[in-house]
Amino acid sequence: MANLKVNIGNLEFKNPVLTASGTFGYGIEYADFMDLTEIGGIFVKGTTIHHREGNDYPRMAETPSGMLNAVGLQNKGVDYFISDIYPKIKDIDTNMMVNVSGSTIEDYVACAAKVNELERIPAIELNISCPNVKQGGMAFGTNPNSAAEVVKAVREVYKKTLIVKLSPNVTDITEIARAVEAEGADAVSLINTLMGMAIDAERRLPLLSTITGGLSGACVKPIALRMVYQTSKAVKIPVIGLGGISNATDAIEFILAGATAIQIGTYNFIDPAISAKVVKGINEYLDRFGYSSVKDLIGNLQC
Ligand SMILES: Cc1cc2nc3c(=O)[nH]c(=O)nc-3n(C[C@H](O)[C@H](O)[C@H](O)COP(=O)(O)O)c2cc1C
Fold first, then answer.
1. Are 49 and 293 in contact (CB under 8 A)?
2. Residue 182 banded pLDDT, cuts 50, 70, 90
3. How far is CA 263 from CA 120, 225, 242, 256, 296, in A?
4. pTM exceeds 0.90, yes or no
């Protein structure tokens, strides 16, 4: 069995397989399907300083080539997370991390400061890339100056591992990655969903109440791989890759492209035990090719 451990900043992961925010609840919802401690970590659903209702229904739509969502960061706010969720997840033996979202810099800072106090949450993922909120969200992640500004402000209050989640809805993702690296991000994760739209021609209506939404699933994988490859060459901090991963081979492709760890998103809805299966598949691949450590695979593309 190969060594599957990877590191992001000072934080150690037992293996590189993580679950993507918004697709794995708080983890506990999936405990009947798999052993949560078998994976490297869990990003819980997007958490904001205040309670959010999210967008009007319908806010999810399946298309023949991917899933569209416009959930709009529905959650009960960080104080609810601290009082009702944290006690239930704090002793799960894996890295439990919070995805922090906001509409203003002050929101991000206030939420991050509260999560900083939680002893068993070793990292946050700053979502500056959500396409489904009218104010803020992706607006921060599509401009290097505003991306830098929000990361700088959060870095002042957040003392543990700071991961920044980037938007693919930009011309050059590497310039955003470099901007957040310069302000103290410990890692970047990419990609969030791509802006998309679906129409019901019979009813002459958009399928989502918000008209446009975020596209995810297997169809986005080639774009995500390309962006992970480019970004891992542009920054020194680790890159966490995601977008359309549905099996161990997909995960290995991201690691070869330069990802230190990967996240599984939409595929959790198809197979709720997929992330544990991907850990086993990575291990089998390493054994088959005689690698003693997954670290030897990172960026090891023969080109
Ligand atoms: C229903 C749904 C909800 C999501 N909610 C969040 C969220 O709260 N915060 C976030 O950063 N990303 C969120 N995402 C984006 C995913 O974490 C992921 O970046 C994206 O879906 C691409 O990966 P995938 O193709 O493996 O799903 C959400 C995605 C879906 C499908």
1. no
2. very high
3. 20, 13, 5, 15, 19
4. yes
Q: How far apart are the first and last CA of the chain?
A: 27
Q: Return d(Cα 265, Cα 258) in angstroms, integer.
A: 19
The predicted-structure confidence for 228-278, as pLDDT tens digits, reads as follows 999 999 999 999 999 999 999 999 999 999 999 999 999 999 999 999 999
Q: Which of 193, 262, 263 to mutate to test the pocket of ligand 1 (most atoms within 8 A of CB)?
A: 193
Q: What is the pLDDT of residues 95-115, one digit of tens each?
A: 999 999 998 999 999 999 999
Task: Tell me the pLDDT tens digit for each residue of 271-303.
Answer: 999 999 999 999 999 999 999 999 999 999 998
Q: Can you give the pLDDT at residue 72?
A: 84
Measured in Å, residue 192 CA sits from the centre of ligand 1 at 6
The length of the chain, given as a count of residues: 303
Gap between the Cα atoms of 215 and 220, Å rounded: 8
DSSP letter for 166, please: P
Q: Would you say the C-alpha torsion 185, 189, 191, 192 has a positive or negative sign?
A: negative
Q: Are 262 and 245 spatial neighbours (Cβ–Cβ below 8 Å)?
A: yes
Nearest CA to ligand 1 atom 12: 21
Three-class secondary structure of residue 186 per DSSP: coil
Instruction: Please report which helix (H) or strand (E) contains residue 190, including its range.
Output: strand 187-190
Token readout for 1 is 């069995």
Name residues contacting ligand 1 (CB within 6 A). Answer: 20-23, 45-46, 67, 69, 71, 73, 99, 127, 130, 165, 192-193, 216-217, 220, 242-245, 264-266
Residue 169 CA to chain centroid, in angstroms?
A: 15
Is 130 an annotated catalytic residue? yes
Share of the chain above pLDDT 70, in %: 97
